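Please produce the structure of this protein holding phenylalanine.
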Amino acid sequence: MKHEDIEKLLAEIQALECKTAKEVEEARIRFLGKKGSITALFEEFRTVDKEVKRELGRPLNELKQAATARIEELKEKIGESLASQGSGEDLSMPGEQLPLGSRHPVSIVRQQIVDIFRKFGYDVAEGPEVEDDYHVFEALNFPPNHPARDMQDTFFVSAGHPNPLLLRTHTSSVQVRSMEKMDLPIRVICPGRVFRNEAISARAHCIFHQVEGLYIDEGVTFADLKQAILLFAREMFGPQTEIRMRPSYFPFTEPSAEVDVSCNICHGKGCNICKGTGWLEILGCGMVDPNVLKASGIDPEKYSGFAFGMGLERIAMLKWRVNDLRHYFENDLRFLKEFESSVEI
Ligand code: PHE
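Below is the modeled complex.
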């Protein structure tokens, strides 16, 4: 045992630096633990000559005190800096971002349409998806042998009944329910899911979504209908949008029309979205047939009204140029994430 052994350890102790409480503890064990280097010197000290004992006793004790003091000092220092940092984390840092879901494009479009018609004073009405024949067809002036009443076109839940249950093929059924229970004048829009027995392809699906609208009051005319649709189209597709009405046929409206909006991609020049025509079809509409008013107990001599209906997937397709209807139902995240920035959640 030599003086230098003690001095070497003393120098090590004085130079000791630790960053964490764990490092301090490790250093304590290394020097002062059962198998520590200072403890080992004390073991050895017992076996040396008296002469050496006299010489090295004090420096050895001083080494132990210095080591104990340095360890305590380091512990305190680290304790202080931990206390000043709280948990040791920088609490002013922004939190970890959790991945947020996004709205489905069909929901985004539905919300936009609902917001526009709310501004025009329309209420929102909802009704059952499993409906009876009366509300989907009969009250809407569909003749008994109309093809929509065929199994090929409609999903029946219970057949062979005078008023069978079926999956509604349009939300006009909710308009019938509104006419039955609401006071006049009526202004409602009916968003919802509808079902048709169609083969699934890029352009057709057996499930899709509609928003239909109904306005009934005294003296409502086709001019009111045209104005409402024009205002809607400009809110939805931009202030430059023009509309075009083409004569059409629906059992529940007379006269009936299909509405096109000017193509907001080529602005009428003709492109592959509007197939070179400059126009895109967006909805069906017309003046409510007097038979429909009568069926729901409204006097057609006193009241008149208009109705319209549109498919949400189609509007979303035009808005975002989606080329395949099936994307809406497959829930592929790569598709859904494309719409993350389209709304504020
Ligand atoms: N109900 C029609 C459909 O599903 C749309 C429509 C509603 C047409 C109201 C005219 C008036 O296709």
